[in-house]
């Protein structure tokens, strides 16, 4: 099978990561004129809609309000993201340990009241956090997961609870690469095949990223077998939901509905970007992100990068293999 796994761009590069058999590759496309970053991921699922019928949408799915350590009400956040930041989709994710059931109900109510099908979609959820393992966003679930695992190293208990009561979508938040902390990043992303089916997303860039440590953690997780789609979230703690910076989650959908948004995020048709309007499309043998391409000697892949800003230009592609090693550079991209 042919697994696609990522694309990103930054001040220096644009990355495509994919797996062919047991070999993983990143492809970096260098950008020399403007600072921004894009990450794209491909999983393995069934092909449903023709690629030409998809459109890219931009949003932010990690943010807080006054219900935990942010500002403003839930309703203010969802309205601001829609009317001021002009996002296509948005979700609040206040810290679970600070959130009450009534406040979660208020968040759900605000999400329902502000969504406009075809124009602005909403999700809701919370951020489960641990000083031992790191944090994760749990979407579209009202179950507050055990705090016993919050301060104690009981990852098997936590995973068992997730498997029994799975969130609709789960996301690993702001990973910090540090191999010297054996329990951090969920035991250094020790692979669990059952939880791998539940976790769809991982933040590759956020306000807390230092020295590309998120990206290094992502490579580590992929090398260990996880199938994770990279996203860029703003992790808002002020009244700037969606306007804090250019960080965006980009997802390819056949239409902007909640059902379609959930399906697109779960299937990994995403890329992570600091550019608010760059369009990145990647197909192999006509198959979309998330498709299965059976093993054969030759696979034809097509990359399309489009940006309405004339100053944003791309000059080269670098293929990066397991562990972040450069495999090949293609100039005059």
Description:
The protein has 333 residues and is α+β, with helices and mostly antiparallel strands. It has one domain: Metal-dependent hydrolases (TIM Barrel). 21% of the residues lie in helices and 33% in strands. The chain has eight helices and 17 strands. The protein has a ten-stranded mixed β-sheet, sandwiched between helices. The chain has a five-stranded antiparallel β-sheet with strand order 1-2-3-16-17, with no helix packed on it. It has a two-stranded antiparallel sheet with strand order 14-15. Helix 1 packs parallel to helix 2. The radius of gyration is 19 Å and the shape is globular. 46% of the residues are buried. The N terminus is likely disordered.
Structure, briefly:
By secondary structure, the chain is α+β, with helices and mostly antiparallel strands.
List descriptors.
five-stranded antiparallel sheet, disordered N terminus, TIM Barrel, alpha+beta, 17 strands, ten-stranded mixed sheet, single chain
- Tell how many strands the DSSP assignment holds: 17
Largest sheet composition: 10 strands, mixed
CATH architecture: Alpha-Beta Barrel
Structural class label: alpha+beta
| Helical segment count | 8
Can you give the helix content as a percent range? 10-25%
Tally of discrete structural domains = 1
CATH topology: TIM Barrel
